[in-house]
Design a protein that fits this description.
7-stranded mixed beta sheet; 624 residues
């Protein structure tokens, strides 16, 4: 069984949510989803992105938000989850779609779900839910689809359901419901409704009288007859009647097939595309794939082919018809009307960023329900996976490779900032987004996706995207990003390379250490414990002078003021051996003056708490 976080860690998570979410509503909603996750077992890690390091719950996979950053959809169908629903879900006031079908969720349905006043669709079918259908569901005045079939629900069907005038689909079949089926005329014969396979239900619509009702018999089945047959014993009339019945069956067959197809389709996640979208089209250098091609390549987006998950979506390993391996990123956000042309424009912009250290976009697919990007497959995964998720049988990244990664990723980011017109700001630079090709050359991935996902926004400031521990302070406070935002994230990535640790790790709290990697590194440097910074996997097989130099670059990149951070082109030069000594010495002189000023200020105002770090106290030796 999955280990649950202890109370202290959960409380710390709530504190971080309160600090980083963009509004009070987002804070509440993030807390609700976290509580829900704590009550679930997730053997396939489909909720991996639901963690405190991802700033905004709107960036979590399986979560969709509106323009006000309120959650409107939670889609976790066929996710292999077990556990229980929680009453806190009733606090998602803007929720319109709750899709939890095809899991192993048990326990009772909370009455609080009746508080979801904007709910349009509630899909809890194919689970192990027990207990009654909440009477509070009668308050869901916007509800159009209620599917609770194939559970173990018991008790009466609430008469309050007949008050939902918007209801279009109601499926309560294959449960243990009992008593009279309520019917005041609201359950339209033209609405798909099923009470089948509830043996203890009774009433007119079931064909089974309830105790105390006068006996009734169901109407005789309709037998199509020819108007020319005057008597059933007339052999010719019987032939004509048979022909008419056959004709009626012939015309009824398409309707039967349509009903079967509609029910089957409602349980599938992927929809086929119209013929005009199914042909391959080339847009400049890009190849436009059909959805069918990518379904086949990824074995219908099977979970076993998942390479990774993040705020933008899932990535699947795929094999195209020509045998080539690809990585298919399925973007998580829903399509918006009129966005087709703009999406293609942004995709083409990304495709024109061609550099040895940037992940090349191979193609894309867009339909009425899907947006997918196709990239070459990176055989050695990401820097994060090599640092922290490698099998014991694989050798760790050695120091020369880590130096090569530092320089290669800097070159890629420098090209995005200075070599592209308009410049591309990554907004989520971290070890998980630095990929490694067959030669362990660094390849920056996911660049341009922040712009791509925000193309429908017209505001200067959009929702903060990124990962706690990597996000520059000015981006958190204003929501405005720049190339200096990427420089900060790159500096944190350098510390990941050196330490092998995560940028934000609650596990360090158990040792009374800083959860933020940057603060943890500064603390050890202040205590002159440089050797404790270096990844134990390196086993002393590194150059201490080079480690110090890269730490210096990292600290220059992570200065609190974006104006003081170097450009990525300057970072490249420093890593190549040009200008680091001068820049580091200049920065130290400034810090000494700043520290002395702060010290004098604190002496004259002893009641004020000095929260600044004494940078000079953990001064690194300059390059030798």
């Amino acid at each position: 069984m999955k280990k649950r976080p202890n109370g202290a860690l959960v409380l710390l998570w709530f504190i971080f949510v309160g600090q980083f979410c963009t509004n009070a509503s987002a804070t509440v909603e993030a807390t609700v989803l976290h509580i829900f996750r704590l009550n679930l077992e997730d053997p396939n890690n489909v909720l991996q992105s639901w963690d405190p390091t991802l700033v905004n719950p709107c960036t979590w996979f399986h979560v969709t938000c509106n323009n006000e950053n309120n959650i409107i959809r939670v889609d976790l169908g066929n996710a292999g989850l077990s556990g229980k629903l929680v009453p806190q879900l009733g606090q998602l006031k803007s929720l319109q779609y709750l899709e939890l079908y095809g899991n192993e969720i048990s326990g009772e349905i909370p009455d609080d779900l009746g508080n979801l006043e904007n709910l349009v669709s509630l899909d809890l079918y194919l689970n192990g839910l027990t207990g009654p259908i909440p009477d509070t569901f009668g308050k869901l005045t916007q509800l159009r689809f209620l599917r609770l079939n194939d559970n173990k629900l018991s008790g009466l069907i609430p008469i309050s359901l007949t008050n939902i005038s918007t209801l279009q689909v109601l499926d309560l079949s294959n449960n243990l419901l009992s008593g009279r089926v309520p019917n005041n005329g609201s359950f339209s014969l033209f609405t798909p409704i099923s009470f089948a396979n509830n043996l203890d239900l009774c009433g007119l619509v079931t064909g089974k009288p309830c105790p105390g009702d006068p006996p009734f018999s169901p109407p005789p089945p309709f037998i199509p007859q020819s108007p020319f047959s005057s008597h059933v014993n007339n052999p010719n009339g019987a032939i004509v009647g048979g022909v008419a019945a056959g004709a009626a069956l012939l015309f009824a067959t398409p309707a039967i097939i349509f009903v079967y197809w509609h029910r089957k389709r409602s349980r599938e996640i992927f929809f086929d595309v119209p013929a005009e979208e199914d042909s391959e089209i080339n847009l400049g250098q890009l190849k436009r794939f059909s959805l069918r091609d990518l379904q086949v390549a990824t074995d219908n987006f099977c979970n076993k082919n998942i390479l990774g998950r993040g705020g933008f979506g899932k990535v699947y390993r795929g094999r195209l018809a020509d045998g080539s391996l690809v990585a298919v990123k399925r973007l998580k956000e829903e399509r918006t009307p009129g966005g087709e042309l703009q999406f293609q424009t942004e995709v083409e912009m990304i495709s024109m960023a061609v550099h040895r250290n940037l992940l090349r976009l191979h193609g894309f697919c867009t339909t009425s329900s899907e947006r997918l990007l196709v990239y070459p497959y990176m055989a050695n995964g990401s820097v994060a996976s090599c640092l922290r998720e490698r099998p014991q049988s694989e050798a760790p990244l050695d120091w020369p490779t880590r130096k090569k990664v530092a320089l290669g990723s800097a070159r890629g980011l420098s090209y995005l900032h200075d070599g592209c017109d308009p410049k591309i700001i990554h907004r989520d630079v971290k070890a998980a987004n630095i990929l490694l090709d067959e030669e362990f050359e660094a390849v920056v991935g996911d660049f341009g996706l922040a712009k791509l996902m925000d193309y429908k926004d017209t505001h200067v400031t959009t929702a903060v995207r990124g990962t706690i521990g990597h996000i520059a302070p000015e981006y958190l406070s204003t929501g405005k990003s720049s190339e200096k935002t990427d420089v900060f994230g790159y500096g944190i990535m350098l510390l990941e390379l050196i330490t092998g640790q995560r940028a934000f790790d609650l596990a360090r709290l158990a040792n009374d250490e800083d959860v933020m990697l940057l603060d943890w590194v500064k603390g050890l440097l202040k205590e002159k414990k440089l050797e404790m910074l270096v990844d134990p996997d390196l086993k002393d097989n590194y150059d201490e002078i080079e480690v110090e130099q890269i730490i210096q670059v990292a600290l220059l990149c992570t200065q609190s003021s974006p104006m003081e951070r170097p450009k990525m082109s300057d970072v490249v030069r420093m890593l190549e051996g040009d200008g680091l000594t001068e820049r580091w010495e200049e920065w130290q002189r400034v810090e000494v003056v700043y520290h002395e000023t702060e010290l004098a200020s604190s002496q004259t105002s002893e009641w004020m708490v000095d929260s600044t770090e004494n940078v000079r106290a953990f001064e690194l030796s300059g390059p030798r």
